[in-house]
């Protein structure tokens, strides 16, 4: 067993070929067929694997085709995508190109834009682009009247702030985003929470004081894109005490160099009854291969 461990690390526990004897280009061909997390694990085996796992050819194959544009948006920060796209060509000429592994790592971080109200990142495991749009970037009917809505702090939100509804007759939350998504199929969700979450004595709890009206009529979700795609769905809001991603619909991106404009809405405008006790955190866009996950149910 000791000899096997030594061979796996590139040492010579006996006669014969060990992993350290493999040519680096052969190792790179193997790594091309692995996902990013597996590549990082394989880099621990030997110097040869570590060298191959740092190669530009390996990591460029894991990056989206329009990674240069995404990197420009990340570098511009709150300056916005249009400013970043205009400066991208000049930046490429002036600066030395980054190693592709570093580019991948940078894009996996939280990259905010549009005044810090939106952010995107790469899924570390699959390399797909994910996005989160804060409630502060949404158009919410009645948001300026504190009798109905308030922005409250919440450490479970990526933006540390959520919009909380006490009570209203006309419920309408709309939004829009324009972004150069890489080619692929994406799903869009509204992330909401029935009840007001907070902490008491270090424990996560929620208040059900204002919850009412969501079991009478379903909420309608709508989505449309600039290239003519449409989706809609309906759902009753149930299951208080946990963050839920309500699926609005899916859309397909065929050209990563052309911005896709997406408009979306969450509506319940039946004025025969009031509704309240709802937190709206964000709108989430992620590749379809990522399955929907619910937050851990540890509320009381």
TrEMBL record:
Organism of derivation: Urochloa decumbens
PROSITE patterns in the cross-refs: FBOX (PS50181)
SMART domains attached to this UniProt entry: FBOX (SM00256)
Protein name (Swiss-Prot/TrEMBL): F-box domain-containing protein
Transmembrane segments: none
Pfam families: F-box, PP2
SUPFAM superfamilies for the chain: F-box domain
Occurrences of domain F-box (ranges): 16-62
Source lineage: Eukaryota, Viridiplantae, Streptophyta, Embryophyta, Tracheophyta
Superkingdom field: Eukaryota
């Amino acid at each position: 067993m000791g000899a096997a461990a030594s061979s796996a690390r590139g040492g010579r526990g006996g006669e014969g070929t060990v992993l350290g004897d493999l040519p680096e280009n052969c190792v790179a061909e193997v790594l091309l067929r692995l996902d990013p997390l597996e590549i990082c694990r394989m880099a621990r085996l030997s110097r040869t694997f570590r060298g191959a796992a740092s190669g530009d050819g390996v990591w460029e194959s894991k990056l989206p085709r329009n990674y240069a544009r995404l990197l420009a948006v990340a570098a511009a920060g709150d300056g916005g995508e249009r400013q970043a796209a205009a400066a991208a060509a000049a930046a490429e000429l002036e600066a030395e190109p980054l190693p592709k592994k570093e580019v991948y790592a940078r894009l996996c971080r939280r990259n905010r834009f549009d005044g810090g109200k939106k952010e995107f990142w790469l899924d570390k495991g699959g390399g797909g682009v994910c996005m989160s749009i804060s409630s502060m970037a949404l158009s919410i009917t009645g948001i300026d009247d504190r009798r109905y809505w308030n922005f409250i702090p919440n450490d479970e939100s990526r933006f540390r702030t959520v919009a909380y509804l006490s009570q209203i007759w006309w419920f309408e939350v709309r939004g829009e985003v324009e972004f150069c998504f890489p080619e692929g199929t994406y799903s869009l969700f509204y992330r909401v929470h029935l009840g007001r979450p907070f902490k008491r004595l270090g424990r996560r709890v929620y208040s059900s004081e204002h919850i009412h009206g969501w079991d009478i009529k379903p909420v309608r979700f709508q989505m449309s894109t600039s290239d003519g795609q449409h989706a809609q769905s309906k759902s009753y809001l149930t299951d208080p005490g946990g963050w839920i991603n309500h699926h609005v619909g899916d859309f397909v991106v065929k050209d990563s160099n052309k911005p896709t404009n997406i408009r979306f809405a969450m509506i319940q405008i039946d004025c025969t009854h009031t509704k309240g006790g709802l937190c709206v955190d964000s709108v989430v866009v992620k590749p379809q291969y990522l399955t929907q996950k619910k937050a851990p149910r540890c509320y009381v």
